[in-house]
Every structure is written in structure tokens, then in C-alpha cells.
Amino acid sequence: MPEPKEPKIRTDYNPSEAERETIKFVYNRKFDMESSPDRQDAMKDADKWEKQYEGRMGWKAKDSQKEEWQSRHTVPLSLSIVETALSELTEQNMRPLVLPRGTEDEAKARVMQRIFDYSWEVSDSDMLTYEALKDALMFGTAITQEYYLKDMKKITDTKDGKESERTVAEYDDVMGEIVKLQDFYVDEKARGFTGSFAVRDCIRRYIQNVDDIKLFFDNDTWNKLGNVKYVKAGGDTNYYEFYQPPQGINTDKECEVLWYWARSPRDRLVIVANDVLLFDGSNPYKHKQLPFVRWIDIKRTHRFYGKGECELLESIQDESDTMRRMLIDRAHLDIDKMFLVSDRLAFSDEDLMARPHGMIPVGDVNSAKPVEYGDVPRSVEVQLQHLSDDGIISTGINPRAQALPQAGTATEAAMLKEATLKRLRLKVWLMKRESLIRLARLRTSNILQFYPQPKMEKIIGDRQTQAYEAEIAKLKNQGLLVEKCSEWTFELYL
């Protein structure tokens, strides 16, 4: 039996046996996570939900067989439902609030709230919340990541005709970022980030230029193994041992970078780029949790991925589109009629084209006559209204409360809006318990880990610093101060 052929990458990069096992482990975990039935089901329809929201469902492959005059109109039902829900949810101004466990934490809670508000504004987390809510409403699930970012760049100063170069931090603070759902792989047995079925490990996938990878990783922090020089872009599948170049990327310049995060059985961070191990160590964050937050629209109790508004509206959207297109095609035919002609007449399509003052010369006036259509029955309009009502029943959201003027009293308008808000309050409650509490805990831990004392004092100001120190001294005198890391609870501004 012939021996397995050695991959070409081993002529350049020959890792130790332990490194090779680690690389194999990461790619095997990615395969297992990607093959999960729950993820396969969610990813299979993700593109469909995006097209449904964008109104591009009418441009399917089978529609290429349509005539030019046939309608491809799409009813903006999914878009209106998502945007209506989004407008109400963002108006709630959802933001975590730091509260003390006891009286001994009151001074610390006030200081932490001030610092947390600062980090929220600096990182533009209101926009992060908006993006997470939109992804959750469209796809059913959204993922955000909490981390610390120090983005350095070189700038050139000119003084007295001389140029000097210096390095500055363009951004140096905590950060929250929306993660593309297709680039996130999660433990196939997980149901959430908490509880007995909490996520044990996960992978975030990046597609990066090979030069950017070397610029980012070539430092003492990330290049302890010294392997970044071996990273190579390319689409030759025979070159690699475990890595398979994905489709849809520029394999001449781009690489697939996998960040593998583990919480159990031990905290771990492994970074692999195109079959090259770049980093293998412990979780750099002191909270030792997976730095990700899940946002859910409609929760499936025994599954990680939720259900979104587009999925609820799928069949309703398809039926509405079909009926509206048929009615528009019917109107086209009624305006630009077909003709019944004698088989003895030789007419071209141009002869029968409808046009003002157009004439068709024939010997017999009865030889050519248009096809007349009856009026559209009232039942068609009723069916369209039923489809619209089904959309409101399934989502609990009536876009007419915002999008269309309503004839009726102010009481009727208020009842419409209240009916929508009832369903949305459930979404707010779920996102509070599922997402914002976890986000606040991760970010607070990152603030305590990465904010130096001078920065905290600068944020809260001299007056607040003095008040905090006076409160601490008062509690010490009363014997109420507990000298240990206090816990925080998080509620919402509603």
C-alpha cells in the first residue's frame, strides 16, 4: 500500500506533532460545527430571508423564462414588518444600567455607570444594538462580539519644513461588533450561552488579505510561535494538509483565518490561518467567557438558532407576490389586448401593437377583434386582504399603524399601535434577559481589565472622584465596606 503523499505546505512549514494535532483539531471542530443540522437549516435559508427582505424574490432563475411584459413585482411585506418592529424597538433606547447589590456597592455602581455610559458612546453601541436587532428580526439570530481594540496607525507631521513620523492610537477602547451569521460556527450541542446546554466552544471566521494578516500578527503578542511568515494565500488544494480553500474569495491575496474560542473543559484561544498555526494559548480576557452575545427574535427552546420575521412571512410573501403579479399581468393584457384574427390574414406583431390612433387595414371588419376580459372578481381582493391579515396574525405587527394613513378615530389608531406593542414587549424582554445582561457583564469586565486608573478618573471627573473617595471613607468608618470584587446587576432603560 503506497504511503500518503506529503502535502506541499510541509516543504515550507513543518510544525511539531503537537502543533499539527492542534491544527487538525480546529479544522475538525469547524467541520463538525458546520455540519450541525441546526446550523445547516439556519444557513440554508439565510440568503432567502435576505432576498425576501430586499424584495428580490421575484428575480428567480425560473423567471428568466418570463416574457418582458410579465410582472416581477414583489410586495414589500417582509420589509415593512421588519422596519416597523425595528423602529419601535430602537425607540425603547435599550441600554444596560449598573445597579448595586447592596449599600456597600452604591458608590462603585455610580462610578461604573458613568464609565459604562462613556464606553457605550465611544463605541457607538446604539448602532450596534440597531444592527443586532435588524439581523435578529431578519434571520432569527444575531451574534455580536465584545472585545478590546487598540487600532494603531502611523501619521506624518510637518513642522518648519521637516516631516516626522509618529504612531498614534486611532481607537483605544472597548468595542462591540456585529458578526456575520455565516461566519460564526457554534458548538453543535449548544442551546445558548448560559445554562446546562451552554456553548462550550465556537469559531469566528475572517477572510483577510495576507499582507494585513502579517501586519496584525507579526508582534510579540500574537507571533510567539513565529509562524506568521509561513502564511500563504492560494487556491491550490494540493498544497494544504487540512485546509480547503473556500469558494467566493480571491485566493491569490486572501486567507481564511479561524479564531477558535473554548470555555470548557478549559479556556483556550487558537488562531489558524490557511493551515498555519499562529497562536495557541488561554483566553486573554479575565472573564474567561466566550466573548460573544446572541440576540434572538423568536426563541426555539431546544435549538441555538431562532426564528425571524421573514421565516414567519415566507408562504404569505410568496402567495401575495403571485397574486399581485397575476393581477398586474391581467391589467397589462387588458390595456394591450391580444387579438383574434383570421388564419387567412398576415399580420405581424407590430401591426397589432396597441398605440394611439393606430389602424389595422383589413378587408372584413370582423376579421380582427380584440380579446375582451371580464372584470376581476371581488373574491380576489378579499383573498389579498386575508393574506395581509395572516401576516399581521403571524407576526403580531401591523405596519399600517405607521406606514399608511388610517381613516378612523384616534382610539382605533391607538388600538392598532397597542396590539403591535404587545408582541414587541416580549421581544424587548427576551433581548434584555438573553442579550443585554450578557453584553453588560462582558463589557464591564473588559473595562475593569483594560481601563487604567487615570483614564477612569478622567472619565468620571475630579468632582465625582472626590465624591467616590468620600463615600468609600464613610463606608469604612461605618464598617459597611466589603473589600472584594463586587458583583453587578443589570437592568434596562425602558
Task: Describe the protein in words.
- Mean pLDDT is 79; it is low at 402-407 and 482-494.
- The strands form four sheets. Strands 4-5-6-7-8 form a five-stranded antiparallel beta sheet.
- It is globular, with a radius of gyration of 31 Å.
- Helix 3 runs antiparallel to helix 5 (125-139), helix 4 (106-122) packs antiparallel against helix 12 and helix 8 runs antiparallel to helix 9 (378-395).
- It has helices at 17-34, 37-54, 77-91, 106-122, 125-139, 210-217, 309-312, 314-335, 378-395, 400-403, 410-450, 453-478; strands spanning 96-99, 141-159, 162-179, 184-186, 201-209, 254-262, 268-273, 276-281, 292-296, 339-341, 368-370, 489-492.
- It is an alpha+beta fold and 494 residues long.
- Helix content is 42%, strand content 18%.
- The protein has twelve helices and twelve strands.
- It has a domain at 47-140 and 309-341 and 368-494.
Task: Tag the structure with descriptive keywords.
disordered C terminus; 494 residues; 12 helices; five-stranded antiparallel beta sheet; alpha+beta; 18% strand; 12 strands; three-stranded antiparallel beta sheet; 42% helix
